[in-house]
Design brief:
The chain is mainly alpha-helical and 523 residues long. It is built from 21 helices and ten strands. Helices cover 41% and strands 10% of the residues. The chain has a two-stranded antiparallel sheet. The protein has a two-stranded antiparallel ribbon with strand order 2-3. The protein has a two-stranded antiparallel sheet with strand order 5-6.
């Protein structure tokens, strides 16, 4: 039967991926593995997902292909493409080869464990930390095992062989310098290897269906798979052969059911069944479409998805505050502003773990957690909110506490010249223009005098002055925006610099008259 051959095909594909990925980690002589590394790793789920979250490029859509494959035929990724899955199969093979030879058996799902781990991993990612994903991701785990444990063994064998061959006058091999040992990395690799081996010996793919967050996510997607393995109750004789070879423990032969959320698509059951009682069953059923589609709902979902993947420009027009009196000109959408010392948005978002230490110690409360201003990967990372406060000119608090290097320390002199953005003035929103009255709050609060008041000719011929911005002096502290009294749209705002620049020192104005210090009261 054709279905029986699927197991051999699956093994061939798994060996192909496993061998090439292992070669990629062990190729200490650079024999060409780097030439196909990008293509080979395209389908590795977690690296592709993280790369896409940081750079929504076509070359980072491998996880989408895996999701579509899972949606069609289930979790074949786990049994063919994932190298850690194949490593577990190797452990299971050795267990059957040198152990007692007993088979597997059905085990109830441990949904609480795997879905809690998945939720925590997602929460960590949304909070700006990839700690759990990096620790539990199957590809990363496999890489740490091979680079920290297997590669040193290979180098040792090579160096020993090179020494022996040198004694014999043969110089085909040469000795490779030993890499620096990282105790923490080695310890984590040993711990994960022991965990994976113990779980594999106990119950095949127990790691995949309890600890692995990628397996848990694909298990949820597999609930919607078009093709699923099902037991034909008329043909099945309840012999139990399929259950004994099911490494995922997902076949309950007593009830004639298959838990497809845990099935890894190894196809061992097809090869073991002598009665052809297992088949692929199409679970897709077309659902009737509503006669009048809700376009507003569709637009909301579409725009929300665009925001989630960090492409706000595609989601629609820039968001504007609802217009109301007295001001009428909306503030244009501007890039988010990271704190001083962040260097740039790219540097800040790539290193910030959203620990919020800088938020908690900011004396003016200008630092607030972001939502999607930096994109999904930067969710909860701090940004400057000049409606909540402004950056004190002399404050150095956040520059001294950042533990991740997202905010780099700098001197007080350099901080005072770091240009986070530049102030922009909207005359039509200013009360001097709209109400013919004095204000000057922005100029009074500007520490660098980038905002100064200049004469303003007006219809009422009042002696009024209006703000004027010298952008070269502006450091983007936001004091002017915070102090501006106009609502709902402020008359002055800060337009952020994606890369922080350097402002110029303001020119000191000389006094127009001389002071006679010989007088008792010169003023």
């Amino acid at each position: 039967m054709g279905l029986k051959r699927l197991r051999s095909l699956r093994i061939a594909v798994a060996i192909f991926f496993f061998a090439l990925i292992a070669f990629l980690f062990l190729d200490y002589r650079d024999l060409g593995s780097r030439l196909f590394a990008r293509e080979l790793l395209y389908l590795q789920f977690a690296p592709s997902l993280l790369r896409f979250l940081h750079d929504a490029a076509l070359g980072a859509t491998g996880f989408v292909a895996v999701l579509l494959l899972t949606l069609f035929v289930g979790r074949v990724y786990c049994s063919t493409i994932c190298p850690l899955g194949t490593l577990q199969d190797v452990v299971g093979f050795l267990r059957r080869k040198f152990g007692k030879g007993r088979g597997y058996q059905y085990s109830p799902p441990r949904n609480a464990i795997r879905y809690v781990i998945l939720a925590l991993t997602a929460a960590f990612l949304l909070a700006g930390s990839g700690l759990l994903l990096n620790l539990l991701d199957p590809f990363s785990t496999f890489g740490r095992i091979f680079s920290n444990l297997v590669r040193p063994v290979v180098l040792g064998v090579n160096n020993l062989a090179a020494i022996v061959l040198e004694w014999m006058g043969i110089h085909v091999l040469y000795r490779i310098p030993w890499p620096m040992i990282a105790p923490l990395s080695v310890g984590v690799a040993i711990g994960m290897l022991v965990l994976v081996v113990l779980m594999s010996v106990k119950n095949g793919r127990l790691y995949c269906n309890t600890v692995c967050p990628v397996g848990a996510l694909l298990g949820l997607v597999a609930r919607l798979s078009v093709l699923r393995i099902a037991v034909d109750p008329d043909a099945c004789t309840r012999c139990g052969r399929c259950e004994r070879v099911c490494k995922a423990g997902c076949i309950d032969i007593r009830n004639g059911t298959v838990d497809f959320t845990r099935c890894v698509g190894c196809c061992n059951c097809f090869a073991a069944c002598r009665d052809d009682a297992l088949r692929f069953e199409c679970s897709w059923r077309p659902s009737p479409r509503p006669s009048q589609p809700d376009e507003d709902r569709r637009s909301f979902i579409r725009n929300s998805m665009m925001w989630l993947i960090g492409i706000p420009a595609i989601a629609g027009q820039p968001t504007k505050i609802i217009q109301s009196k007295p001001t009428t000109i909306p503030i244009p959408a501007t890039p988010p502003i990271p704190p001083p010392g962040a260097i740039s948005i790219a540097h800040f978002t790539s290193k910030c773990t959203a620990c919020h230490l800088c938020v908690s110690i900011c004396p003016s409360n200008v630092l607030v957690p972001s939502l999607f201003e930096y994109g999904l990967s930067g969710m909860m990372q701090p940004r400057m909110n000049y409606h909540a406060g402004y950056c004190n000119y002399d404050c150095m608090a956040c520059l001294k506490v950042c533990p991740s290097g997202a905010i780099l320390p700098m001197s007080a002199e350099k901080k005072k010249l770091t240009q986070l953005g530049v102030a922009k003035f909207i005359k039509e929103n200013c009360v001097v223009y709209t109400d013919n009255t004095d204000c000057g709050a922005c100029s009074e609060h500007c520490p660098t005098k980038a905002v100064k008041m200049v004469p303003y000719p007006n219809p009422a011929n009042k002696p009024l002055v209006i703000p004027e911005v010298t952008e070269d002096y502006c450091v983007g502290c936001g004091a002017c925006e915070y102090a501006c009294p106009t609502r709902p749209y402020r008359a002055i705002y800060v337009e952020g610099n994606p890369i922080h620049e350097t402002a110029e020192m303001p020119v000191e104005e000389k006094l127009d008259h001389k002071i006679d210090y010989r007088e008792d009261f010169p003023f």
